[in-house]
Amino acid sequence: MTTTAAAPHTSLRMAGEMTIYRAAELKQLLLEPLQQPGATLEVDLSGVTELDTAGLQLLILAKRTARKQDGQLRLMGHSPAVLNVFDLLNLAAYFGDDLVIAQPPPTSARH
Question: Is beta strand 72-76 parallel, antiparallel or unpaired with respect to 40-51?
Fold first, then answer.
């Protein structure tokens, strides 16, 4: 994970699993930057290889914490693992971030 901070704006790049096995570690990483009122946390999810319900709960908690502190949580670079969960549970609107869904490469036309 990489963190860049310019108060009250923090960028965080998540890598690997966002699962129950890393929940305590990830909770601190996600919530600490949001403790300052008006803070913005941008989370790049492009490196997430797996997202389970514990990881999803952490993202929801981070969103609620940001709102409570009059801040913002911005999710970006959604990996296929994240997109699958968001699509399955219809969560895109809840987080309110733009989702870029990869298109399969065009197939060549056969004549």
Answer: parallel
